[in-house]
Design a protein that fits this description.
With 244 residues, this protein is of the alpha+beta class. It is built from eight helices and ten strands. Strands 1-2-3-10-4-8-9 form a seven-stranded mixed β-sheet. It has a three-stranded antiparallel β-sheet with strand order 5-7-6, with helices on one face. A hairpin with a 2-residue loop joins β2 and β3. The longest helix has 16 residues. The radius of gyration is 19 Å and the shape is globular.
Length: 244
Amino acid sequence: MEDNHITEKRVDSNIKNQSSYITVNGEKYEREHIRTHLIHIKEPFDPIIEKYVKPHFKKGDWIAISEKFLTISQGRVIHESGVKPRLLSKIIVKGVKKYPNDIGYSHPRKMQVAINQSGSLRILFAMIVGGITRIFGRHGDFYRLAGHRISEIDGFNPKAMKPFNEYAMLGPEDPEKNAEELEKKHGIPNIIIDGNNINVEILGGSSSLPVDRETARKILLDNPMGQGEELTPIIIIRKVEDKE
């Protein structure tokens, strides 16, 4: 049985950043939630690191960055006005699992974006094979077979912060390369995550990350960045040392 659990959370309306704590594999970690302004499309990312992260960063820390945040900075977004759901997307979403707090792929426009990325024939093939293997308890084949990183596509969520509730986001251009470049430029070990209320996945990470990626994922598995208007797309993580 895993021992990862949140032990406490510090919330103070008089401070800009807040922290939460979690224990994973017997080690306690602080997650400092870095508040930022609302980023605009194609806004340079480096000044954000300089302004919001570096004043709080300490030796031994590492950071987690929301892939949506990086995607917006890179301009890899599509407005809903440019997406017209066609028959195939409307049919496929009827069989998509729906979650109470996440639209997943149940939105026809979002599915149409995936079709535009992978092609109708490949999506159709993935739907048929994925539907069959799901009967036998195997999950995720639809996304693996469709390829083109469609599992990273997000957006068209009516509960998302405006104006990004009107956009689909394709995911960062090259998460592994992006993470390595950020560390090389700023000296900050980091990972880029795709997090929601269902799961957290690591899309890329830099070479000097002080924990393995599965441990990093567990540290963030409760999605401390949030899904609403928290404006905390970056988390600083530091190991809490015993004071004995």
